[in-house]
Amino acid sequence: MIVSSGHLDDPRVVELLRLHLAAMHVHSPPGTVHALDLSALKHPDVSFFTAWEGEELLGFGALRRLSDTHGEIKSMRTAPRHVRKGVAASLLRHMIEVARRRGYRRVSLETGSGEAFVSAVALYGKFGFVKGETFGGYVATDFNQFFHLDLQTAGAGGAAS
């Protein structure tokens, strides 16, 4: 598996993003979807990463700069044919390493609750993310959850040491 930057103009990426956004709207109450669309993913503060096996798209994720010391994991999605193959873990590990190289002290994320989000929350926990307070202008609801990883205390790959 190769993780690389970019590819937002690739039709396979655009289609997987469309699938991601549609799923977020199906599994989230109105007004609670904070996934980035194609134009938002092209913002200069957002770095977009894709995972590939040869010419096959395995998944994507984004890292948004909130400040010089704080980043946010955004819009992660694994292609349906590749779920449970370690794609999301590889993307998350890559984005955490990028955050470290940038000098971020903390990486945060917002996600939903309910059955559709259980696997993602479990993955974040394996990497040492802990549930915490809102950040970055989000408003807490009964649906969303906020997780944070302190990069100063987390071990290599993100997992707490």
TrEMBL record:
Residues 1-152 form the N-acetyltransferase domain. It comes from the Bacteria. Keywords: Acyltransferase, Transferase. Signal peptide: none annotated. InterPro entries: Acyl_CoA_acyltransferase, Bact_Acetyltransf, GNAT_dom. This is GNAT family N-acetyltransferase. It comes from Fulvimonas yonginensis.
